[in-house]
Model the fold of this input.
Amino acid sequence: MAYKYVYSFGGGKTDGHGGLRELLGGKGANLAEMAKLGLPVPAGFTITTEVCTAYYKNELVFPSSLKKEVKLALARVEKVMGCHFGDPKNPLLVSCRSGARISMPGMMDTVLNIGLNDETVKGLIAKTNNPRFAYDSYRRFISMYGDVVLGVAAESEKAKSPYEHIIDQLKENKGYESDTDLDADDLKELVRSFKSLIKKTLGVPFPEDPQDQLWGAIAAVFNSWTIERAKAYRQQYGIPEDWGTAVNVQAMVFGNKGQTSATGVAFSRDPSTGENYFYGEYLTNAQGEDVVAGVRTPRPINRSKDLPDGVDTTLEEEFPVAYNELNFIRNRLENHYRDMQDIEFTIEEGKLWMLQCRNGKRTAKAALKIAVDLVKEKKLDQEDAILRVEPEQLNQLFFPVFNEDDLKYKNRKIIAKGLPASPGTCFGKVVFSASEAETQSDEGVILVRLETSPEDIKGMFAAKGILTARGGMTSHAAVVARGIGRTCVAGANITVDYDRGFFKTAKGEIIKAGDFISLDGTKGEVILGAFHSTKLGLTDDYHVFMKWVDKARTLRVRTNADTPQDAKAARIRGAEGIGLCRTEHMFFQSDRIDHIRAMILASDAKGRKKALNSLLPMQRDDFYQIFKAMDGYPVTIRTLDPPLHEFLPKTEKEITALAKKFSLSLEAVNDRISTLHEQNPMLGLRGCRLGIIYPEITRMQAAAIFEAVVKAVEEGYKVAPEIMIPLVGHEKEFVLQKSIVDEVAQEVLSKIKAKVKYLVGTMIELPRACLEADKIANAKADFFSFGTNDLTQTTYGLSRDDAGTFLHYYLERGIWEKDPFVSIDQQGMGQLIEIGVEKGRSVNKKLKIGICGEHGGEPNSVAFCFKHDFDYVSCSPHRVPLARLAAAQAAIIANKAPQEAKKAVKIDEPKAKASPKTKAAPKAKPAAKAKAKIGRRATKRPKAVSTVNPAALKAVEKILNAQKLTKKKNPKGPNHDD
Amino acid sequence: MAYKYVYSFGGGKTDGHGGLRELLGGKGANLAEMAKLGLPVPAGFTITTEVCTAYYKNELVFPSSLKKEVKLALARVEKVMGCHFGDPKNPLLVSCRSGARISMPGMMDTVLNIGLNDETVKGLIAKTNNPRFAYDSYRRFISMYGDVVLGVAAESEKAKSPYEHIIDQLKENKGYESDTDLDADDLKELVRSFKSLIKKTLGVPFPEDPQDQLWGAIAAVFNSWTIERAKAYRQQYGIPEDWGTAVNVQAMVFGNKGQTSATGVAFSRDPSTGENYFYGEYLTNAQGEDVVAGVRTPRPINRSKDLPDGVDTTLEEEFPVAYNELNFIRNRLENHYRDMQDIEFTIEEGKLWMLQCRNGKRTAKAALKIAVDLVKEKKLDQEDAILRVEPEQLNQLFFPVFNEDDLKYKNRKIIAKGLPASPGTCFGKVVFSASEAETQSDEGVILVRLETSPEDIKGMFAAKGILTARGGMTSHAAVVARGIGRTCVAGANITVDYDRGFFKTAKGEIIKAGDFISLDGTKGEVILGAFHSTKLGLTDDYHVFMKWVDKARTLRVRTNADTPQDAKAARIRGAEGIGLCRTEHMFFQSDRIDHIRAMILASDAKGRKKALNSLLPMQRDDFYQIFKAMDGYPVTIRTLDPPLHEFLPKTEKEITALAKKFSLSLEAVNDRISTLHEQNPMLGLRGCRLGIIYPEITRMQAAAIFEAVVKAVEEGYKVAPEIMIPLVGHEKEFVLQKSIVDEVAQEVLSKIKAKVKYLVGTMIELPRACLEADKIANAKADFFSFGTNDLTQTTYGLSRDDAGTFLHYYLERGIWEKDPFVSIDQQGMGQLIEIGVEKGRSVNKKLKIGICGEHGGEPNSVAFCFKHDFDYVSCSPHRVPLARLAAAQAAIIANKAPQEAKKAVKIDEPKAKASPKTKAAPKAKPAAKAKAKIGRRATKRPKAVSTVNPAALKAVEKILNAQKLTKKKNPKGPNHDD
Done:
């Protein structure tokens, strides 16, 4: 039985349609869809992505029936276009282009003008009566084919190609200034030179047979799926390797047949601002690559905006008929796809041809404007509008960014990479100590440290940015920088030499104190030199859009906030409570660190209690401020978590100072530090273990919380405290800590009449906690908050602080598809979370479940949490808006999924059964079965969703896998959400 | 409906039997069994363990129907014994004793002579015509009751009791030398004094009502279930808190009614040597406590051995009739229980009474002899004999031990506790450096270090024992000490001050260089002063017994051996292969450490390869020697696992020396050390991550292995290499490393004609590996070896090296029942192992599964592995014999379980339904349901097993929970066991 590997389009008979993106790729599906809409698409056919998969599985051999199918499809093209491939008199020329499911612009190869040789070029001349055009096409074909298919190319990406060298030589010889000076003979001469270059380089002549040319091009495009830049791109955007690309073979039309021909690119709205006018550029007498290449300056298609200097005409004026048709098509397409379209067109001797259309890329600002406008224009409902915006884009609105279009920036020298510890961008002079940062702050400085400590706080305030060689996303530097709004790159691969005042990059470059560097805290880049930043800011569209988002979503979004300042910032961004308040971060402040140190150095419980008593009023006031800021929204406060030695100084000088301050012998302090030293602090005396060994700590913190509650309630505020016990691995740990909290609550709250409801719950951040979640729930835990940072660390046996040495390598080699600290490892760790949720809810159906790891603000992870019926996600204040958006998208997709899936089944199911994938896995081992299952589900992807953004598209796939698409509560108003 | 809470025994009508140990406790079940056998047991009744459980659940209130049942049972005792409780003329006196399922000798309370008061004492005088005896009983009763029930007791365990003070005072006043000088009036005087002391102390008089006395005593015994020493004992022996104790109330008989009365303790065989003669001691005119208290020296019961000095008669001579009856009973009991019995008896005015019998405690040597002899005597089959010996006991045979009977040792001062890192005992002078250890080795030294490093090796050889303040069971010190056979206590709670030449204990004691300390590496104790050790050695019985063990077991036992010496030692102890050869331990040797350091300091792959090439021949030779030692048995070699910085020096001095040696700048070396520094090395660049980042390391190790294979095969040895990839978390890691191993194997093995079968498998030591075990198995892993050390660390988020600071506290508070690093956490981590096994075998039914963590030699963990159908366990060489025994016991119990369970059902099931436990958990929550299920299973425990040792008993419980009691292969002969 033969599979259908080839889908024809154009000329009134089209096999495919826009819903077959998986099979035909984005370009192929859109061409089919345009053809179906009756738009003037040059005829062609698409070789499916299944061929790509089979090709790679079968050691680069095509399925046997493909040849025959291509032959038949090509015959159809010949019939529609009225010419013949390889016909010396009336030749058909074709292009061969890649087309993956998701656009990977410029990543894969393209070959144009296939079918030209020394014979057919004569036919082309005869047909067009335009020898210059014919030879121009021919020489373009040879250089492109030579480059892409035969590999006779420039030595590096930036070097000139050997073909350009030949052209330059000829122009120099002839004294020409521009390519347009080249006449037909010159171009014919170039054809000869190019061919001889290729023969000389390869030892074999350039292929003259059009069939050879075509198959060479098809193979080259499939091969380009796995070239380095394509792989890198897929990795960056999380596109699976096994999706493969389709190949589109299409009749050539020519924008370079003289002054009646043109070619251009247009957007149905302005992709920078989102304004609703027809935006585009074109070149007369040119092929598409000329527009992109930037050799000639293209002209605007109309006068909607002022013309640039030196431009005096537009497409509308030069080709009024074609322009009107194009403008009509623009509206047709936008109405059809209900999204801003990116259109490629060519006018051949006055006739308009549509080459491509797809959803246009856009800035965050434009994305919001377009979404809001389309709804206003009633072209889109709010839910679909929400699916049009990528969550990650929202980041652009809140933090300074470097100018991506700046050429200097494009050529920037990244001297080190680290963790994106605190977002934003900045530049400044390098200093190596907090005191220098303070004294030189007027000049704008970047504080560079091995790691920071509480001693450095003032210097961190004084600096514009902070760069550290050690530490992870939750290191002191990262936490403080996010708290005080400084850009920070942490754990960068540099070595710092304080004594000699420089740091050294992995490549051995020396950066001295006083040198300028720039930091990109959103990306984790350290850049040589000074780059200025801009900040976009919020628009009205943002506010309108986010209102819709909040209406659509069911998952609540909280924030991780450690200070009243954080809490306020997060409220402004729409946080509906605090999911994690790390009390210890309050201790890092300089007026408190002494007290916590006094507690650590105390020799007995009495001494500890005394020191804790000094901390109590400070913590109480912080909590009071936070309760006020969150007026009525739940505030989750975690009891002390980090190992105590994190609060102690590290250098001899600091230790000596500390001993003096506390009138202790240096020996005593060193003894204590040595006792507290741990080989693996992450796995040591921390979390609830501290509160169990030193119950007075938990007692003090509980007292501070409930005394703050009393104060806030007495002043008329609503409060909803949720006390969270960290690092619980055994239910008895929780029981012991909860009993202290309850006891203190009873003592303190008895002083007021008002009844205050408070919850006591636990972080689920150890594999054992997931496995024993039923027992923990049974011990009367009111809520679970998945601490996915630590859970990732223990599930993988991987320290976030130390992973830097090999994480990049693992991602580059594809061992891990994604950084598990960025996006929840749904496949592995996801199982533990699933076990935890199931077991917890098996005991208590109403168990409130949230997440407070860094993953809480990552769209795929948010979708995962939605799927597993979480009540809320909690993330850094700056990620709150995008978590809201991701939550809304997950809810919308889940709502759509059942009926959409139903529709899709009718179209795709028969094919899925006959697909070569299914055939390629004959052994019905469990794992193979599971794969087959996923494959089946994937084919059920709904049609309409194929026009949404890539992130949302991926989300659909995941949501469709959800076994239970259950009810969700409505997140309205403050107070406890259960 | 009323439960049966009270079981009567004696006088021809007995409710219980020996199979009801759970309900009646060990003592109660045995008394019932003895009564059923027709032996002369004083009548009495047992209040069941269910009452204990209900009592604690119900806030120390007894079930309401208990009073009535006790009344009825007491009436039966009165009838049988022909006297009445509280009858002033013919009083019945009773004892009240605890009795848990498993004997907890001396841990709980006992009250004797209940029923005496100022009235009944007169009846006792009249009845016995012996006022001295009566008042002696009365004063004993008051002091015991005052102490145990009323809490009028000595201030500390070592202090004299207030009653003894009063006696001493009286004796001084009267000028008496011994207690026997006290006459009836003196004793009457004591009764008065004791009572007045109690009234003065408590403010209320001593209870005169016998019913009050009885209920006070019953409550006191139940209360003693939860006193500190009982809790500590249970924790040490892993006895669950909720088992509870039974209480036995029994008619008193008196060995102190004058010269025709006596009391004694006997063993049916010698408990020290196991020799088959009637062994025991007795005292004339005494109560049982006198024998135990050691105030008077007891006499032997017969002349089987020479009499001690000053002893001139025996029970056999003094009480020939009673002795003959006792000797008859001895044989009756041994035949009945088929085990050596520990018997308590009393002769009251010539009549023999049996007070107790139970399986006797014994030394390892005796345990083996008794087991072997009983089989020879055809009293026992081999399988039951195997169940009679506790695996842990075997340790006594292999390593020196301190003399437990030495009074000085009993009063030893434990100055610090640490991990039992390398077994054995020793003493020596403290030194603080390896060089001192070398120069002073003649004197016998203990090397004390913060932690050891490869620089210390010679000093470690020179020392008798090693004590470190940091590091866990797999630290350098522990690993090397085990390898070279030195006693080691690691990670002890001491602080070491090298500069001033002392270490300090947690209590602040200073131990200086030159001071004597003793180490117990089996227990992890550091003891002040010098204690000599003895070594038992192996007996013929051992060899006979272990042959039976090997016949009975199905689970294979391998060893963790890193050197040819280890391998040989393990073979001698019966290891059937190597389950873990940690190649890096070879690197710690002084001739190799330089090469590995050269590799680490190399700046590129070329430099690394050069250094690795120098290591290759050394590793090859080691492997060759190991293959030879294991001739044909499988040898599992793990590729490099620890983070590289473990191989680098730590002190400035050593670093400077290293830089000089390698002609590198100090800066360069420090740079490298700083780059390799990790916050949490356990979670860092180690395991297969090393082999992935530096494939040349894996390549070298694979080459060394297969070149050794070639050499061994060419010399005619059989080899079965199994290459193990550590720390795999993602199947792709395994694929990458396996491909290197396979490639090298092909290269090297192609040189010989013989076909060598080798396996490539992986450690399963990360939660993610368990969760994704199907994918890893699918990636063609030939075997899984559960690395339960690391798996425990990651499942708990707990560093073994750092847990010392709070682990003791957690165990003492009962937060954890057992140290999870010692015995597999079956409840929590067990789930991950189960998932791993199930998923792995779902892909490959024949997947070979083993364990190579420290747990592999712990009996409960061995039973767990058996239950989960492992192919083998692997443990330290010295634990191989006990793992063999534990494996045999697990297999025997599993075989017995089905039919035994069937039998048991008939007897117990109706009761289980009506048990108060079931009633006490009315909510059918999942967790409660699970508990109920366990309860049900527990009641099905087979009857016969109630006579085996405690460890085996616990194992039954676990095995009965096994859902699949499937087939097991027979472990015969060498070569791959699949």
The longest strand of chain B covers residues 351-359. Chain B touches chain A through 64 residues (CB under 8 Å).
